[in-house]
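Hi P.,

Sorry for the delay on this. The queue was packed all week, but I finally got your sequence through. Input first:
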Amino acid sequence: MRQLFISDLHLSEHQPLLTSGFVRLLQHFQTEPTELYILGDWFETWLDDADPSGWLLPIVKALRDFTHQGNHIYFLVGNRDFLLGQRFLDRFDGKLLHEPYCYQWQGLNFRLEHGDSLCTDDVDYQRYKKTIRHPISLATLKALPFKAKKMLANHLRNKSKQNQARKAPIDVNAEAVAQALHECDILIHGHTHRPAIYALDEKKYRIVLGDWREQGKLGSAKILLLNDGQLSFELQDWDFS
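Then the structure:
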């Protein structure tokens, strides 16, 4: 069974082209046995697993069609959709993975994560993440009415945009990467929106997936597809319209 890795789609009702591109991806790969790994920031904002929004319906249908063909879907939360849980994934037989997720394939040890935890030089964000992901904070957020969640999400998004405008983008920390790769061969993540493959030595690789982007009436992303027997790595372009 082949493995397909994507991240940073940032789907929202305001960017239907990205949603269409994701649905087309599912349709394109569903005819052969595929394990799809979504490594965070699947959605621009996620408020509630019971979100009744109509724009989600074609996504859920495409996901069901994908898994009904015998394929599998795995999801790791990102910094934008950390409230997404197993309840939503149960709608299409998906599975929530906990970060970091490590497994073996083709004799190699893989480590999957969103990538924000590797950006340790962003001290303010790491402090915020520790606070917002605390079990008490998560329980409080999940208990809020949907309208209150939406207002809070808008506030946090605007605050994030203001913070990003004041400082240069921060990439991963080399020491954090080295530590993550200490007991694995392949580290795959997203978050930084800087797709690339780094060969750290003859056997260790860091693979950064690309974010999904709109360019007029076209969209594109950098994805990773691994087939049985394949030991080489190359990011592929996924173009859609």
